[in-house]
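Sequence, structure tokens reproduced for absentees:
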Amino acid sequence: MEELRNLARIVTGRRLQTLPLVDFNIKAANKELQLLNLLKEDDTSTQNQISKQLYNKKQGDSVAFRKLKSRVEHKLLNHLYFLDHTDPRHSVSRRFELQCLELFHQSSVLQWESEYSLAERLLRKCLRLAQEGEFTRYIVLALNELRDLYAEKREPARYRATMEQLKHYRQVQEWEEEASQLYWDTKMIMIRSVKLRSTLLDDLPGYIQKLQHLHEKARTFSTFYYHYRMQITREEMVGNFDEIIRITSAVEEQLAAGKINKKRFDSRYNKFMNIYALLRNRQAQKGLELAEGYFKDFHPSSGNWFYFLEHYLLLALHAGQYSQAHELMRLAHKNTYYSKQRVAALQRWDLYEAYLHFISPEASSLRLMHFAQFVQTVPDYSRDKQGYNVAILILQFLYYLRRNDEEALLMRLESLRKYEQRWLRDPATLRSQLFLRLLVLTVKENFRAEVCEKKGQTLLARLQGAPQPGEAYAETEIIPYEDLWALTLTILRNHTAEPAGARNKLNGE
């Protein structure tokens, strides 16, 4: 009871007279709530427009608004201490880690107030939870504080026991940090040029072996996790998607058997990797069925929701389910967090939407004028001229082919040849090489559908037998090349059947 009495004295004696929080329960909305409502309801208003609405002035009140904005931001940051983390659609480890962080913060404040007995109890609870969750960082933090506390209280036996634990966990932390550094260094190489990503393949087996060695020494969740992710990375880069499915299934079995910490492992990662592997392994229909069930496990406010939805959309496109793809595209745009994504992600969504509009314009919400502008001004996605640039070149070619703009196509003919010769020389880029040759064939054969179909059979057969490239080569097929070739032949046949005066009009856009 004495501890509670002392805590009551600390809080009542040191509490702030006005809590720095937004009062969401007041009946008449004050300026703070008005600002919050405007921010939630409108993503497009500028600072000046919001200021005018709040202060009913033509020019707003810049000084008052600046103070209001600063005050609201400060209060909203304080509300981060009181978020609900129990939703299972968030990372499972989040709520357990935050428990450790909260206990550590509370015990630190109590030590500053010289309330050592309660601080020790909270630190020991923090230590226990951190050990259960294998959060080595918080284990070391809690042990450091306990060491200081026992030194202050002159308890040598507890001090020595704590130091023994601290020595062990510091070593574990060093191993974990080494594994972490190796993993994240590798990730940074992967976001750079295709050339660097390709050379990384030679180093990955050594990295995996080193991570395995670190895990054998540390035996913690973190070292297991980095080793596991590096294994997945290697198979992803070489295009061994069957092995990804095998590895993720084996880990799920270990998790069910209690061999992996359930407070730390996020099964949603395995679910994502499974549908990704099925997409790249040409099992789109099976992946689509799984994605429908998995999607509910991702919270709409997270970046993972959008990333999963991207692959859900690609599965629909690869399965030829274009009406479902349109629904998924609309779902993405309806999410209030859509604009929160990184620029590169937003550009990918624009490209997906352009492809979807091109292949299935009747259900598209994209306006024809916006589509035409996008195709003609689409940005480069990769400095080393691979990945989404291949998809962009293909979309632009097909756009001018549908328009029957022979002049524009002839201008691009040499560009496609040079592109293939310069950037698609690696055997792993065979599918893109073959499809670009099919597109070139349409120009060489003067857009005659029957001749292109006949002379393209050999290239098409090679395309159908070519393996899917790994991520090391940054190849991305938004629509399978086989389906795009069938669409190309359909466009050519439509042109043949058209009256001569209609050939310069947009066709089906």
About this structure: The chain has four domains: 2-82, 92-167, 282-363, 380-509. Residues 44 and 440 are 43 Å apart (CA to CA).
